[in-house]
């Protein structure tokens, strides 16, 4: 029996506006793939990302181009060879994982060696804004143990000071989204260290980050836009201290597991992150992140409306997915 495939574009409103150094948005645009076989269905969600040249239309078309191969029974290993890393492959790969679990009755946790998964402490993201507005965001979330703070503008020292003073008990991750420069990075790193910042994500543009090999890292520096697949990693040794693994970058859980394991072999710290998506996108990442050093899977917390059923969040703790949702 051939598999049945559906591809759907969906939009979920964000609670307010989500702003980073590259712009703002008020809704999460996602594409959901559903694959049916023998009365069971598997689902996967992806978030096309303009930074990587992706659009909703382009990702939808890339998935549709794989329809015959999916219907014909393509497996996850063959999918890796057939498609490049990115959002389209992620949605198909995660749908295949979910379908395999449903058909076999064996949960994904068993397959990937994550038996008895636990609830994880996730970061909560504060949007880029003027320092006073970011301080207000920080005060409203000062009870959260881990905050991720979007920076990458001209007044980042004031932002760092405002947030750390407003949430003195929280650990802070800074995410510059490639917004710093060779001329300000040393000063910004020193200032971040003075304010007890725990980690800094992608301060410089991917491909223009060679200076990181030459300067001190008073705060650990994490690659985000600079890393997609395991084959990218060796070039980052000496530049970065950690890597942020996102399923939409790696092109699915299959490659993300390889990326995580190779990163550990090379001595990198591990963050598991996300785009702004629903619980369906976060679910496989929660399982991937069981032994991560930093977890940033707060996408549903930023939405005005999530899927039902969704992941269960209690404060900053996110529980493993129920199999009704995924896996």
From TrEMBL:
The active site is at 150 (proton acceptor), 246 (proton acceptor). Mg(2+) binds at residues 175, 201, 224. Its EC number is 5.1.1.-. The chain crosses the membrane at residues 266-289. Keywords: Isomerase, Magnesium, Membrane, Metal-binding, Transmembrane, Transmembrane helix. The keyword Isomerase applies. Binds 1 Mg(2+) ion per subunit. Residues 131-222 form the Mandelate racemase/muconate lactonizing enzyme C-terminal domain. Pfam families: MR_MLE_C (PF13378), MR_MLE_N (PF02746). CDD domains: L-Ala-DL-Glu_epimerase. It comes from the Bacteria. One of its GO terms (molecular function) is racemase and epimerase activity, acting on amino acids and derivatives. Its cofactor is Mg(2+). InterPro entries: DgoD-like, Dipeptide_epimerase, Enolase-like_C_sf, Enolase-like_N, Enolase_C-like, Mandelate_racemase_C, Mandelate_racemase_N_dom. The keyword Magnesium applies. Belongs to the mandelate racemase/muconate lactonizing enzyme family. This is Dipeptide epimerase. It comes from Mesorhizobium tamadayense. The lineage of its organism: Bacteria, Pseudomonadati, Pseudomonadota, Alphaproteobacteria, Hyphomicrobiales.
